[in-house]
């Protein structure tokens, strides 16, 4: 299992060691212990640029996922699941509103993003319900 965690200085502080450990626990909880995951911690401007470029939606969002499971050349992917991008600025605002610590909000966003990487979605009501249930299950597994 490999977790690559990237981010620059000047962003809200998260415990990166803890986040890396938790990312590994997420991968184990979804039976992807051998996978490689890339996590980028960015600001609102960076995620807004990605949101516009890849989703056609203006403005920042909290988390984006770029899966490498689907698409051409799967044989070249190896164990790499893809990239999860988290806006720490948006996460910080959401944490305040939800009366949670920033590290906990980032964990929730990372779980959400990783589940997107492996094919979960929430466009339809049934999919959304299943994804929420899986988020809760993974959160319990990581927290224990």
Description:
With 144 residues, this protein is an alpha/beta fold. It has a single domain, classed as Collagenase (Catalytic Domain) (3-Layer(aba) Sandwich). The chain has six helices and four strands; from the N terminus they run βαβαβαβααα. It has a four-stranded mixed β-sheet with strand order 1-2-4-3, with helices on both faces. Helix 1 links the parallel strand 1 and strand 2. The protein starts with a strand and ends with a helix. The mean pLDDT is 92.
List descriptors.
144 residues, alpha/beta, Collagenase (Catalytic Domain), four-stranded mixed β-sheet, 6 helices, globular
Secondary-structure topology with pairs:
Blueprint: E1 2-7, H1 16-29, E2 36-42, H2 44-55, E3 63-67, H3 74-77, E4 80-87, H4 88-98, H5 102-117, H6 125-143
Parallel strand pairs: 1-2, 2-4
Antiparallel strand pairs: 3-4
Helix pairs in contact: 1-5, 1-6, 4-5, 5-6
Care to give the gist of this entry?
By secondary structure, the protein is of the alpha/beta class. It has six helices and four strands.
* Model regions low in confidence, pLDDT < 50 over at least 5 residues: none
Work out the radius of gyration: 15 Å
Oligomer: single chain
| Structural class category | alpha/beta
Query: What are the secondary-structure elements, in order, as H or E?
Result: EHEHEHEHHH
Per CATH, what is the topology? Answer: Collagenase (Catalytic Domain)
Envelope shape: globular
In CATH, the architecture is 3-Layer(aba) Sandwich
Q: What is the name of the CATH class?
A: Alpha Beta
Kindly report the average pLDDT value: 92
Helix content: 40-55%
- Measured between the Cα atoms of the first and last residue, the distance is 20 Å
**Strand coverage percent:** 15-25%
Strand elements, count: 4
State the fourth-level CATH superfamily.
Metalloproteases ("zincins"), catalytic domain
Overall number of domains: 1
| Order of the strands making up the biggest sheet | 1-2-4-3
Q: How many helical stretches?
A: 6
Largest sheet: 4 strands, mixed
